[in-house]
Structure formats: C-alpha cells, structure tokens
Amino acid sequence: MGKEELLKRLRAAGAERVEAQYDGYSDEGLLFEVELYGPDGATVPGPDDGLWRDIEEVVCDLLSRQWPGWEINDGSIGTAVIAVGTGLVEGEHGTRYTEIDFDSYEGAL
What we know:
Helix content is 26%, strand content 34%.
C-alpha cells in the first residue's frame, strides 16, 4: 500500500496522529504497538488488522530507507509518529549494538 492510500484510510478512521512503536532484531522487525489519535488528542478505535498491516508496511519501508538493516543482528527499537494531515513522520530511533571491552593482563600461571 502506498503512503497516500494509507493517509486516506487513516483520515477515514478519524485519525490525526499515529504512534507506532517498533522493534527489530535477529533479522526480523515488527510493530508491537500502534495507537491512533483524533483531533482532540483522544485515542481513536483501531486499527483493525488490515490497517495495522498497512501501517506496519509503510513504517518498515521508511525504516529500511532511513536505517538499512534496522532489524539485523542486535537491531533497533523506536517510535514513529505520523502526522496524518501533512504526511510527515518524526520519532526516536535507537540502534542496539554489542560492545566488547578488552583488558590486558600479565602474570604467572
């Protein structure tokens, strides 16, 4: 589904803002929470399964363009906030990584 079609469906659902929390690691990425908010800031019922999948497709596509490999190895976590009226997105993205800290030592066995 394209961005314009998704925005049209979100408007029809009464959503003005979408908050999508995502998590990706070990070669898989997904949304684990999606909230829709109306003009008054109150939550809007939904999304249904079809709309959830469409939001997930568009958000994961955005993540893959912005942070290629976001779901690989230690992965990433974050929140994408979509302004339905303008079609703009903002959020926070955290990249996980494994760090190794070496110490040197010397001594008798």
